[in-house]
């Protein structure tokens, strides 16, 4: 390659990065390692996801259960889109979450992160003591004191994400996911959308939503703004291996490659404090991950300190 051709190639790559090249997790000029070139916040000190290290989690008895309204079955149409990075379900603002300090967050959308690139790779973003779950669910909200998500996403207290981790349960189909999974074939290609008619988000989340980890972080995808209050539920969702494999292999990205391993690597904690509204004993808190390797499975055990249960409203 001549020096001139080399120079032109570098200029083209630079121009792509400068003018919004499609970000990716592992390929191209704007892979995860290079996100900060286009999105400076991605190189910040309060990034997500993180590794939840049980021994370092601080128990906070003042954290009550989240008050969830509108999470139960709602009639209507809910757009579901393959955005080239994940599957995303648009949610109505009638769904909202109120935290212990009285802050109300309105729901915006729900999406998923998964693995699948090999039989042993799981795809949650947050890990627990270094162990990764197979899938992670994010329900994204914005602070109700702002007029819109677009306004809130620019504010330091603008966003909140309710996150749930998924593990494998042998041979048991989770019927609450049947409708969602059956529509994946309708959005195989990036940019395609379909509609879910009627939706019960609470049934798609863990059975026990009272106990959670809480910390301040960022969006896990560009622009990685550091204005997200995270609530990671301690309980897990159970899906069958067949259901998980369907999610891992149904959608294509903008390059018509199967969307797999759409998760960001864990980020440094940088002196932040992770709190929880339950007491977890370290010797019982190991083994949260149900790995695909059957021999590696350890049933999780968690001791929760009873607290004010708050309320879960339809």
UniProtKB/TrEMBL annotation:
Alphabetized InterPro entries for the sequence: CA_dom, CA_dom_sf, Carbonic_anhydrase_a-class, Carbonic_anhydrase_a-class_CS
Gene Ontology CC terms, in alphabetical order: extracellular space
Signal peptide extent: 1-17
Domain Alpha-carbonic anhydrase residue range list: 21-278
GO molecular function: carbonate dehydratase activity; zinc ion binding
Keyword Metal-binding among UniProt keywords: yes
Domain of life of the organism encoding this protein: Eukaryota
UniProt KW Disulfide bond keyword: yes
EC number: 4.2.1.1
Subcellular location: Secreted
Reactions that this protein is recorded to catalyse: hydrogencarbonate + H(+) = CO2 + H2O
Cofactor: Zn(2+)
Gene3D superfamilies to which the protein is assigned, alphabetical: Alpha carbonic anhydrase
UniProt keyword terms in alphabetical order: Disulfide bond, Glycoprotein, Lyase, Metal-binding, Secreted, Signal, Zinc
Function: Reversible hydration of carbon dioxide. Its role in saliva is unknown.
The family this protein is said to belong to: Belongs to the alpha-carbonic anhydrase family.
UniProt-recorded name of the protein: Carbonic anhydrase
Gene that encodes the chain: CA6
């Amino acid at each position: 390659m001549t020096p001139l051709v080399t120079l032109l190639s570098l200029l083209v790559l630079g121009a792509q990065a400068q003018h919004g090249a499609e970000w990716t997790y592992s390929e191209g000029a704007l892979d995860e390692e290079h996100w900060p070139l286009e999105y400076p916040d991605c190189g910040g000190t309060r990034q997500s996801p993180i590794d939840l290290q049980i021994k370092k989690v601080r128990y906070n008895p003042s954290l009550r259960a989240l008050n969830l309204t509108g999470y139960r079955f709602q009639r209507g149409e809910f757009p579901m889109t393959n955005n080239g990075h994940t599957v995303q379900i648009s949610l109505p603002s009638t769904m909202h979450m109120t935290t212990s300090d009285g802050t109300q967050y309105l729901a915006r959308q729900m999406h998923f992160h998964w693995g699948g690139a090999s039989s042993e790779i799981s795809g949650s973003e947050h890990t627990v003591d270094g162990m990764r779950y197979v899938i992670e669910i994010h329900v994204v909200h914005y602070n109700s004191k702002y007029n819109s998500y677009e306004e809130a996403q620019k504010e330091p207290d603008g966003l909140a994400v309710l996150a749930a981790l998924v593990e494998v349960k042998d041979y048991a189909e989770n019927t609450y996911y049947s409708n969602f999974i059956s529509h994946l074939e309708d959005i195989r290609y990036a940019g395609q959308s379909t509609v879910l008619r009627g939706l019960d988000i609470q049934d798609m989340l863990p059975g026990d939503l009272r106990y959670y980890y809480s910390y301040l972080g960022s969006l896990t995808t560009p622009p990685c703004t550091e204005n997200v209050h995270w609530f990671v539920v301690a309980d897990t969702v159970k899906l069958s291996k067949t259901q998980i494999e369907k999610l891992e292999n149904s959608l294509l990205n903008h390059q018509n490659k199967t969307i797999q391993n759409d998760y960001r690597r864990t980020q440094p904690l940088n002196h932040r404090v992770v709190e929880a509204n339950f007491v977890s004993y370290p010797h019982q808190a190991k083994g949260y991950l149900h790995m695909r390797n059957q021999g590696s499975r350890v049933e999780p055990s968690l001791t929760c300190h009873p607290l004010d249960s708050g309320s879960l409203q339809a």
